[in-house]
Every structure is written in C-alpha cells, then in structure tokens.
From TrEMBL:
<dbReference type="InterPro" id="IPR025714">
    <property type="entry name" value="Methyltranfer_dom"/>
</dbReference>
<feature type="domain" description="S-adenosylmethionine-dependent methyltransferase Rv2258c-like winged HTH">
    <location>
        <begin position="33"/>
        <end position="107"/>
    </location>
</feature>
<protein>
    <submittedName>
        <fullName>Class I SAM-dependent methyltransferase</fullName>
    </submittedName>
</protein>
<dbReference type="InterPro" id="IPR036390">
    <property type="entry name" value="WH_DNA-bd_sf"/>
</dbReference>
<dbReference type="InterPro" id="IPR029063">
    <property type="entry name" value="SAM-dependent_MTases_sf"/>
</dbReference>
<keyword id="KW-0808">Transferase</keyword>
<dbReference type="GO" id="GO:0008168">
    <property type="term" value="F:methyltransferase activity"/>
</dbReference>
<dbReference type="Pfam" id="PF13847">
    <property type="entry name" value="Methyltransf_31"/>
</dbReference>
<dbReference type="Pfam" id="PF21320">
    <property type="entry name" value="WHD_Rv2258c"/>
</dbReference>
<dbReference type="InterPro" id="IPR036388">
    <property type="entry name" value="WH-like_DNA-bd_sf"/>
</dbReference>
<dbReference type="GO" id="GO:0032259">
    <property type="term" value="P:methylation"/>
</dbReference>
<feature type="domain" description="Methyltransferase">
    <location>
        <begin position="181"/>
        <end position="301"/>
    </location>
</feature>
<keyword id="KW-0489">Methyltransferase</keyword>
<dbReference type="InterPro" id="IPR048711">
    <property type="entry name" value="WHD_Rv2258c"/>
</dbReference>
<dbReference type="InterPro" id="IPR053173">
    <property type="entry name" value="SAM-binding_MTase"/>
</dbReference>
Length: 367
C-alpha cells in the first residue's frame, strides 16, 4: 500500500540486461547523429561524388580533387572510416568509398541518395534553441528561420517526385496526360521553388500553370527558373492561403496539386476548401502527403517514422503555430487526412502508394 509518507515504487524487477541493451542503443544513436552531420557535409561539399568518381585516394589527393582544405577532409575521413562508411588502407594511406555505399550517398544515385535526407538533421538543429523556447512558452518558429529548408526540400522532391512525375504520378489520374497535352488550367498550392510545376510547364506548353507559396524567396527562385527554361505558360505568386476557402476563384482550375504542403499550413482545412472551390465540376485534386497513421502506435513500423516526427515537431508543426495556426504537423496521418478531405467537400478520395516512395501517400480527390 502507498501512504502519504511512502512513495510509490515500481513493483517490476529492474532488468539489468534491458538497461544495458538500451544504453548500447543510445550510444548507437549518438554515433548515428554525428554521422548524419558528417554525411550532410560530405553531400554539400561534393566529397561523396568525388570519391565515387576517382576511387582510392590519399587525404591530399581527395582534397585537391574536391577543391577543399586537406585538414578538414582528413578529419571528415576519420569519422567516415570509423563509422563504416569509407574504407581505409593504412599501408597505402588511401581512402575508398565502396560502390555499394556510393549508390546511397552520391549524386550518381538520383533517386536513392540518403545523403539528401541527412541534411535535415543540421538544418533542424539550427533552430533547436527556438524550439526549446516554444516548448516552454508556446508559439512557433517562422519560415524565415530555416535558411536552407527550401534547398533541401527541392533536392528531396528532385529524387522522390520529379523522376516519377510523368510515368508514375500523373498516371494516377486516368486520362490526365492527354488533357495536359490538349491544354488545361493547373494550380500547385505550396509550390516551393516550383520544380514540379516548371517541369510540367516545359512538358505541356498548351496548358497554363499557376503556383502559390507563402515564401517570397521560394517564389523568386521559381520565377527565375521559369525564365531560364523559357516557360511562358507558368506564373508564380507569393500568397498567404489562410483565407483560401473564401477568396479562391471558383472553378478556375481543372487540376490542382499539393506536394507535401497541406499539413504545415496555418489553416489546412481552409486551404483544402479553397482547392475544392477552385476546381471545375470535373476537376481533380492530387495530394502528396506523408505516409503515416493518425495513431502513433500504428507508425512504429514506418521505416523513417522517427525522422518524420522530428521534422514535424521542428518544422511542419511549428511553422504553422508561428502563424497562430492549427499546428497539424506532418504526421497528421491518413485517417485525419481523409476526414479533412471529406470536410472540404470532396465526394471521392482514392489513396495510392508508389513502390519507390516509402514516405508518402498519393490522394486523388474529386468533387
């Protein structure tokens, strides 16, 4: 019995083996976190690409080939070697990135480069102080505090969306390719740097494309890229969509897309209702969003669930809260997504998965 002077004691026996195993796991977590930082550096400096190209090299040879400072390259190689990513021949004094490792780390692997995702870790770490403040005081961290997030998202979509866009994503909507060839009106909500929209605009010159995003920087990048590509059939606009349910132009578009963009909005349901309002009677809305459940216990088998929850807490949720928004977060899950699509007025919703994509569902929504 527990009394006022006798604190409750866990009746379970302390499992020494379990405690030891968990301690070992935490050491692995620390090492993996450190390797994520160094992997990001290897990607951003081009070291992985250089190693994949030149083969075995000394620290000086690698630094010269990559145009970097040898002392930093040497220390980086130390981390990569003890981390089991790079192989070292002490007799020859050379370092090698095995081809099997380069397949997941170099830009020669455009659809499976895990080094792209490693960049999220230092990016999120840069706002740790802001996030800790929010834990204690509420509020959120605004978009402008994330200096490289659009860069990373563009690279992320560059290997998960763009290579699959024509042959896997667009065919989710029957007959869409033919309509785009003939000429329809297309809107991308939360377009970021406009990579997907600019690609579509270059493929389908008879169609007209519009991109909206809150970030002025992202929109400026998208416009510049459109000009470089000679896309005269696309426009980009910096726009706050928190009242999109009221000010979206009715029946203005035949096809609307969102690529991983709904859950970090100030008012996600207002955005979805605006999308529904902006569609023609026979229009289609295609939404890419995170593959997960609204129930945390059902996400334990999701291969990158810890990363997704971390990105949600330290970016998606908090940028919404910074606008006094809902703070829905990336892991809102399929169940809540279907609830929101229904509340927005969509009559039918198909949930699709793509073999190459472990992190997203693809929702095809019709009025």
């Amino acid at each position: 019995m527990t009394t006022a002077t006798s604190p409750a004691v866990d009746s379970r026996a302390f499992d020494e083996a379990r405690a030891e195993a968990f301690g070992e796991r935490l050491v692995d977590v620390l090492n993996s976190g450190a390797l994520c930082l160094m992997t990001s550096i290897g990607h951003r400096t081009g070291l992985f690409d250089t190693m994949a190209e030149i083969g075995p090299a000394t620290t000086t040879g690698l630094a010269d080939a990559a145009g970097l400072k040898e002392r930093y390259v040497r220390e980086w190689l130390g981390a990569m070697t003890v981390g089991g990513i790079v192989e070292h021949d002490p007799e020859e004094g050379t370092y090698t990135l095995p081809a099997e490792h380069a397949a997941s780390l170099s830009r020669s692997a455009p659809t499976d480069n895990i080094a792209v995702f490693a960049q999220y870790i230092p990016q999120l770490g840069s706002v740790e102080e802001d996030i800790v403040h929010c834990f204690r005081n509420g509020g959120g961290v605004p978009y402008e505090r994330y200096h490289r997030f659009h860069d990373i998202m563009a690279e992320d979509s560059g290997q998960s969306v763009l290579p699959a866009l024509r042959n896997h994503i667009l065919p989710l909507v029957s007959g869409l390719g033919d309509k785009l060839e003939s000429g329809i009106r297309v809107l991308d909500v939360g377009c970021g740097r406009g990579k997907a929209l600019n690609l579509l605009a270059s493929w389908y010159p008879n169609s007209r494309f519009v991109g909206y995003d809150l970030s002025e920087e992202a929109v400026a990048f998208a416009r510049n890229e459109a000009a470089e590509l000679g896309n005269t059939n696309v426009i980009f606009e910096a726009r706050d969509l928190s009242t999109f349910d009221r000010d979206a132009e009715p029946a203005a578009f035949d096809f609307v897309t969102t690529f991983d963009a709904v859950h970090d909005q100030k008012d996600p349901l207002a955005v979805l209702r605006g999308i529904r309002r902006s569609l023609t009677a026979d229009g289609v809305y295609l939404a890419q969003d995170i593959k997960g459940s609204s129930h945390v216990h059902l996400n334990c088998e999701q291969p990158i669930a810890p990363l997704l929850y971390t990105i949600s807490c330290m970016h998606c949720m908090t940028v919404s809260l910074a606008q006094d928004g809902e703070g829905l977060g990336a892991m809102w899950g399929k169940e809540k997504a279907l609830e929101y699509f229904n509340a927005a007025g969509f009559g039918s919703v198909e949930v699709n998965e793509l073999d190459h994509d472990i992190q997203n569902y693809w929702y095809v929504c019709r009025p």
